[in-house]
Amino acid sequence: MSFGLSIKNNSNEFLISSDMRNLHHHTTVTSPSISVVTANYGGITRFTYTFTLDSNYIPVPFFTTPFTDRYYAIEKVSQSGNTWTVQLITQGAYPTVVDNGDNPSPGSLTSVLSSLQYSGAPTQITASSTPASGAYYAELFHVGSTPIKQGTSFNGDIGVRMIWDGAVVPLVGANSDGRVFVTATNGVLPINYTVGGTGGIVDTDGFTYYPFENNGTDQPSHIYDNPAGYLEDFNQASQVWTSLAFYKIKREGYVSTSGSSGNQPTGSYGTAQIPKLIVFADARAVTGSDTFGMKVFKDDGTAAFDNRKNPLILKQITSVSHPTDATNTFTGSGLSARNASGPVSTWSTQATPNQYNTTTVNTMPSNPMFYYATVTQTHQQVSRTEIETECDGVVVKGNCLGSERDYFWRSTYWNFYRGGILRHDSTTIRAGYIGVEYGAYHSRTTSGSFFGFSTGDSAGSTTGKWAWDSDQINTAGTGVNTLLIGDATNYI
What we know:
The structure is a single chain. Strands 9, 10, 11, 12, 13, 14, 15, 16 and 17 form a 9-stranded antiparallel sheet that branches. Strands 3-18-6-23-31-21 form a 6-stranded antiparallel sheet, with no helix packed on it. Strands 22, 24, 27, 28, 29 and 30 form a 6-stranded antiparallel sheet that branches. It has 3 domains: about 20-105 and about 255-310, no CATH class; about 135-255, no CATH class; about 325-360 and about 370-475, no CATH class. It has one helix spanning about 345-350, and strands spanning about 5-10, 15, 25-30, 35-40, 45-50, 60-65, 70-80, 85-90, 110-115, 135-145, 155-165, 165-170, 180-185, 200, 210, 230-235, 240-255, 275-280, 295, 305, 315-320, 355-360, 370, 375-390, 395, 400, 405-425, 430-450, 455-465, 470-475, 480-485. It has 1 helix and 31 strands. The protein is mainly beta and about 500 residues long.
């Protein structure tokens, strides 16, 4: 094209271009239907999400991982007209502890709000913007013809900065001093940061910060609502005010709790334990409602980018590899050869997936989201055999003198697995398996003889659920095991 727009970062990578379609936030689905298939063989839960999207566009679904000891994967995406369905599978049945946001369960990635903090705020205005060691505060900054203390009479730009444990918090969209500038009209601070809401002042690692007034209870809605500290300086020569207001601060972020999430055959999932499905689509499929923003068009006049509807921001693109087998304990020891009679408890223990490969990634946000729609799958099976002999005569030196019948028993137990990913810690992804199907089949054959000579009589029966041959498929190829990592805090 002769004309257009291209914006790149310092690494010369494209951020926005009128030659390509950018993905934007379409919707977040938080109330799927839930089906716990079984608690055996490691357990499996299916979450089914539905949403509406113009059938001319393809959704790109990301998901959160509430538990750090479970594997997750997108199993299926289907469409009927403008209605789309996404099935997400996870290892494990019902959790041991139900968490609706106020009762963190073991093995989970849970939101934690810090205690109120305030210390180390400056006592005088200096040229240095470096905070004191161990300082905690929220800072509002302005240089101009009126100071911040004008309150509801103030109109102008305000620099917002968070200081946590003596460090400048890397806010999204901040300048080199760590400040994000917003426009205050009649003193109103145009930031949605109410604790318990969906907003907040978010940093690049996914932590959310909330300012509080000096009483430690109320949150300021204006730039000069009872600050915990205030400084100002007036330059007579230039007639310019420099002013700073300081507020107390809390931080909310996600932390991992120790222990196992559980694998119960009955129970329920709490709202904090249900993965969120965060759906993206290209700029043509989404509608921005804000009055101001930037919209980029392609040559054909259709939207390529629209910052009014949150663009997808990726933290990392990587790939993972799965081990050949899902489990190394599926030996069949203790399983019956007769009628595939198990016992199921032994079968379940042996077939529970326990193998994984580890991938090291950049430090992930505290509340990450993933796109992982692998089709990697593997099948494992074991067979048990047994021979039973009946003699109607006398057994002499191991030989039957008379009519003899031999019963040949054989049972085959099998499990089928799909690949999944697990967020082990902030820099480690595990690629393992989720058991999605299981079954067994068995046979019995009878043959007869008389004084060692075959009578030619034989009979047999086979019944049960057949499986594929043991094998691993779809483990390599472009995009098959690609993993995209983003920050869910920006979209929930």
